[in-house]
Amino acid sequence: MNLRFLEAFYWVAKLGSVTRAAERLSLTQAGVSSRIASLEADMRTNLFERRNRRLTLSQAGVRLLPRAERMLHMERDIRLDLDLADPGLPILRLGVIETIAHTWLLDLLDDLRRDRQDTELELTIENTPLLAEQFSRGMLDIAILAMPQAGDGIRSQALPPLQLTFVQRPPAGERRVPRVEVSARELASRQLLTFQRGSPTQTAMMDLFRRVGATPQHVHGVSSLSAMLRLAEKGFGVATLPCDLVRPFVQQGLLQCVDTEEPLPSLPLFVTYRTDPVSNAIEDIVARILFIARDHERANASP
Fold first, then answer.
1. How many CA atoms within 13 Å lie on the side-chain side of 20?
2. What is the arithmetic mean of pLDDT over 91-109?
3. 290 vs 70: CA distance, rounded Å
4. How are beta strands 142-145 and 267-274 bridged, if at all?
5. Cβ atoms 301, 251 nearer than 8 A
6. DSSP states of the chain as a string?
């Protein structure tokens, strides 16, 4: 029984699509279909059923899947025991939220460029809901986002959260200081810039005001950090932004942090990925992501 045929079967079963499996394996759709057909011919049974344009496992496919996974794990263990080369990851489809792009993404890209020259990177920068959808459809290998994902063969690990702060343009005519204190009730009366409605940060901000009995009158949902930063810098309102991002602007006197009686909750971060029974490449990259995120946390204090 050809292990590469089992590998193609495994990824089609996990991702529910020949197209997505082909992308994951860096093969053509015809190549994946040929491997599945050869495996079915070898086993003299259909492994998939096609209903309403959807691909589902047949009864034989359901029985085969855990056994195929064990055989692929066994192959990986043999490679490790005999010090054979890991098959690696030809293409890494990485999705990150924009917050990461403005903080430690470049450190990660430098690391991957230096130590994983055999892997081609396909980078996607989007908001959490879109990344979660793309990951669930098998369009991403690793996603760094603000909510954990769950499912068969899917793992999520918590990353150090990003500390957030309220920031505003310093009032004209006043001495510029890096921090000012404003009550939450007073802040609720101002123009507030935050992430899109329903995001973890927007929800946490609204909960903060709710706890002090205040109701914000003007809340603007902005999906772009760059746009939110620009609006705050021009004095349009008070923004909720990562401390790491605003630090140089605070140091230059262009923005100032706004402290309230309750701190703004941090932005949770998670790295989500699918386990690979054949290669350690995904786990190795996830370990690098964890290291870089933790190193960034140690190196940066709040402004």
1. 18
2. 93
3. 27
4. antiparallel
5. no
6. --HHHHHHHHHHHHHS-HHHHHHHHT--HHHHHHHHHHHHHHHTS--EEEETTEEEE-HHHHHHHHHHHHHHHHHHHHHHHTTPPP---SEEEEEE-HHHHTTTHHHHHHHHHHH-TTSEEEEEE--HHHHHHHHHTT--SEEEESS---STTEEEEEEEEEPEEEEEPPPTTSPP-SEEE--HHHHHTSEEEESPTTSHHHHHHHHHHHHTT---SEEEE-S-HHHHHHHHHTTS-EEEEEHHHHHHHHHTTS-EEEE-SSPPPPEEEEEEEE--SS-SHHHHHHHHHHHHHHHHHHH----
Q: Which CATH class is domain 91-161+268-299?
A: alpha beta
| pLDDT tens string 203-230 | 889 999 998 899 998 999 998 889 999 9
Question: Torsion angle of alpha carbons 236, 241, 246, 250, nearest 10°?
Answer: 60
Domain boundaries along the sequence of the chain: 3-81, 91-161+268-299, 164-265
* pLDDT, mean of residues 266-277: 92
Closest CA to 246 of 256, 231, 236, 237: 256
pLDDT exceeds cutoff 90 at 289: yes
Fold of 3-81: Arc Repressor Mutant, subunit A (1.10.10)
Q: How far is CA 237 from the centre of its chain?
A: 28
**Topology (CATH level 3) of domain 164-265:** D-Maltodextrin-Binding Protein; domain 2 (3.40.190)
User: Is-same-fold flag (91-161+268-299; 164-265)?
Assistant: yes
| pTM above threshold 0.85 | no
Q: What is the mean pLDDT of the chain?
A: 90
pLDDT tier, 47 (very low <50, low <70, confident <90, very high otherwise): very high
Q: How far is CA 219 from CA 60, 99, 213, in A?
A: 54, 20, 16
